[in-house]
Amino acid sequence: MTTAALPKQPRPSKLRILCFGDSLTAGYCSMGAMFHPYHERLEQMLAMAFPDIAFETVEDGVPGDTVRFGFMGRMYHHFPQKNAKILQNQADTNGYDWTIVLGGTNDIAMGVPPEEIYNTLKEVWDYALVNNSKVLALTVPEAALDPSALRERLAARRNKLNDLIRSHKADNFHVFDLHAALPYLSMTPSDRQRYWDDTVHFTPAGYDLIGNKVGMALVKLLEAEGLGTPPRLPKRRRMFKDDDLEFEEENGDETEISKGYVVVRRADLD
To answer: Exposed, middle or buried by CB within 10 Å (0-12, 13-18, 19+), for 90?
Structure first.
């Protein structure tokens, strides 16, 4: 994740976050029979890290939508105060403290040049920024295609777009490298089966993993803003059931992507 030092700010009582994108933001899986968006786990991660702050996450993911032809029209409805023409159809007027943007998979498949996708993404990011929302841009994850000339062409476009996203600089703009965090081609077979649903989309466990990864990145950004660690709550002596239980993440294959989880026992806190 790339970021710069952020100015200190008063501790807020509430933070509102927009998760914006296509089917990967919507949590599309099982050929559309199920949706399991990552924002649900993201909100849980934030609430655990900062229990004294009320977090609200809003998900706007549209399966099949493209950055080039659909994203800006939808963004106008989230920040209508700058667009009087659509006030009568406004979707939300409360604003967002953060906007998380993930898009480009469908554009790449349609053959849209990476530079065009990037230019529209810049418009999306800038529109959120001018409306006083900080931006966390996500790079485009790998697609689980079989080795082929087509996959190589798509990968070249995706890599070019991700390079452009990573290199973008602006005040209150940050990047989390989702592509690096979910490396399909270097995953173990068991991880692929667990986290990937088809050639593009994830399983519910995969979307939860995205929520975990993005959540940890956003927690670090919030800490850098000066929120710090919440005041420590008084210790309670009550013990919890299964406090000595050994979790899968503690004794599994160290090459598994799930090794990124952290298990904290009640006894560790005493």
So the answer is: middle
